[in-house]
Amino acid sequence: MGDKMIKDNIGNVLKTLPDSTKLIAITKYRKDEEIQEVIDAGVLDLGENRVQELTAKMSRFSPSVRWHFVGHLQRNKVKDLVGRVHLIHSVDSLRLLRKIDQESAKAEVVTAILIQFNIAKEPQKYGFSTEDLSEVMAVLKTCDHVVLKGVMAMAPHTTDTAVQREVFRKLKEIYDRIISDYDLKNIAMDTLSMGMSNDYAIAVEEGSTAVRIGTKLFTGEEK
Fold this sequence. Notes:
Blueprint: H1 2-16, E1 22-26, H2 32-40, E2 45-48, H3 51-58, E3 66-69, E4 87-91, H4 94-107, E5 111-116, H5 133-140, E6 146-152, H6 161-181, E7 187-193, H7 200-205, E8 210-213, H8 215-218
Parallel strand pairs: 1-2, 1-8, 2-3, 3-4, 4-5, 5-6, 6-7
């Protein structure tokens, strides 16, 4: 019964997504059998928010899975991710950006990253403010072992859709500004990572190219 429910939930979400929007299944706290059902349903982009969980799961599932790191990343854990993950969504400080570049250089790899913005300036969330963009790009210019693929943000957890929409709209403006104003060799923008189980429909309307959905896939609920 479980596998049909997860498959149906995935189908219901995919029906609402345009071809230009990728579904990233957030698999934190989920059993291996549930995660395998997601993979069997054809979703190969999986996201985790803890380094230890991600690296442990990597060895247990198909090498064709593309692993995304979506949580707050401590600098001492960076070396465990470079060369192994498809994309780090949560670069939220200049020190972390420099550390990813350093560890990637040591490993002789180039790491794909997104810059995380805290658009609503929520004190409990990580991320740059919109005013930090030029400083971030100045540091990025000095990094030879990262490639910037886009930006990420989370909207406040609220039933006020206007608040959510404003956050997504502002992130899209930052995304567009990077494309128009910055011509750096290590920029290859294609990912606007915004939208979760409770607000992804609005994010898609505002241009999201990657939604990060967990609860809705596994339970059908929009928490």
